[in-house]
Design brief:
97 residues
Length: 97
């Protein structure tokens, strides 16, 4: 929500490499090891992991969308039926004759 101060909204102030490093550290720890850290460090590690995972998920979704749109475009270009612009029946072009 706009104007709401959340842990993930503050990640813009942290360098990307630092977030990636903290996320990698969080991935390498099990729950018992994570609990050994002071709460501020533990929350920092978890937020970095969540942020990193969120970015990876968004990247994967965009990649899936691009692949799907490319597939639809290829299918449409291979189709022998002309594509209508919605203004009426499709008519063959008479240009160039």
């Amino acid at each position: 929500m706009p104007g709401q101060d959340t842990p993930l909204s503050q990640t813009a102030e942290v360098p990307v490499m630092k977030i990636q490093h903290l996320a990698a550290e969080a991935r390498s720890l099990d729950v018992a090891e994570l609990r050994d850290h002071v709460p501020s460090r533990r929350y920092t590690l978890v937020v970095s992991l969540l942020y990193s995972t969120q970015i990876q998920t968004q990247d994967q979704l965009v990649t899936m969308l691009i692949k799907r749109m490319r597939s639809i475009s290829r299918q449409r270009s291979r189709s022998t039926l002309p594509v209508s612009n919605g203004s009426g029946p499709c008519k063959p072009s008479t240009r160039g004759r």
